[in-house]
Amino acid sequence: MCPSESSSKPARTTATTKAVRASGSRLPSAKQLTEALVARQFVPFYQPLWDVQHQRWEGVETLIRWQHPVQGLLLPDAFIPVAEQSGLILELGAWILHTAFQQMADWHHQGLSNGIVAVNVSALQMHQPDFVEQVLTTLQLTGLAPSSLELELTEPLTLQDTPSLIENMHRFNEMGIRLSIDDFGTGNSSLARLQCCPVTRLKIDKSFVAHMEADSKSLNIMASIITLGHSLNLSVVAEGVETGKQQRLLAQMECNVLQGFHIGIPSTSQQTEVIWHKHNMLNKE
Ligand code: C2E
Ligand code: CA
Ligand code: CA
What we know:
Layout: E1 12-13, E2 18-20, H1 30-38, E3 42-51, E4 56-68, E5 72-74, H2 80-86, H3 89-109, E6 116-120, H4 123-127, H5 131-142, E7 149-154, H6 155-158, H7 163-174, E8 178-184, H8 191-196, E9 201-204, H9 206-211, H10 216-231, E10 235-238, H11 244-252, E11 257-258, H12 269-284
Parallel strand pairs: 2-5, 4-6, 6-7, 7-8, 8-9, 9-10, 10-11
Antiparallel strand pairs: 1-2, 3-4, 3-11, 4-5
Bound molecules: ligand C2E and calcium ion (2 copies).
């Protein structure tokens, strides 16, 4: 099967939370999303990133959820598309940036983690002429260091040639903020593009990981992307790691960072703090 054919994501049940997708239910209106933002119904979840070489948590990716009063916990597919179409993603995205930076800065101050926080950024956000200033101001307000931040951009976004976008990417890079290409391998990145695009990391799409045990082509693609990334001096993340075997294979291929249900599920800030505590205790022993 072609990896992109399987990119629709199944509903998942986590240990403590049940999150649902929009399939079968109507998408919310922009007005409902605005009301949800005012009513503070959006909740950041954090999924851990595992540094293979140093055998430690590198940080977390922020994944937004909507705690809907009637429908329960909704996954991003249920509302991000509407937020993007309506432009509300600018307001929601600014809130997510502030909340995630504040959370990581608090964990740093508490000594729970010295890791990074990765935040997904939509095309609309990245195209704003004042986006760099917005991020900078939010870093200053929350006290988070630029080096503790990673912005995740989708592959199609990094392929756009808009001057303001490229300038924003270079400015982030100069500020020491990391940029990664999310869902790498599903778009049309060219080698020339990778050479001139100031990104620091490739996040290999989870559809390749899902098939690497059964399909040698997916395995070879994974190995090739990791080699390509390293030859360009880029860190490589594999997402969607669901089994111990996948973890072992990826470690053998020298993939730098692993993310997935086998490593750690997306969790609330309170649940993530428990992970930091356990990790810190183990490292003291
Ligand atoms: P993404 O950035 O590719 O995020 C990874 C998705 O894979 C997440 O889905 C995560 O829960 C899921 N995942 C993690 N580990 C595994 C695994 O082992 N197996 C499988 N099958 N899936 C795994 P989620 O949370 O539903 O997010 C879906 C997408 O919504 C994200 O894909 C991202 O594109 C978007 N999104 C999430 N949060 C935000 C946000 O704050 N802002 C924006 N603009 N988009 C967001
Ligand atoms: Ca992402
Ligand atoms: Ca991804």
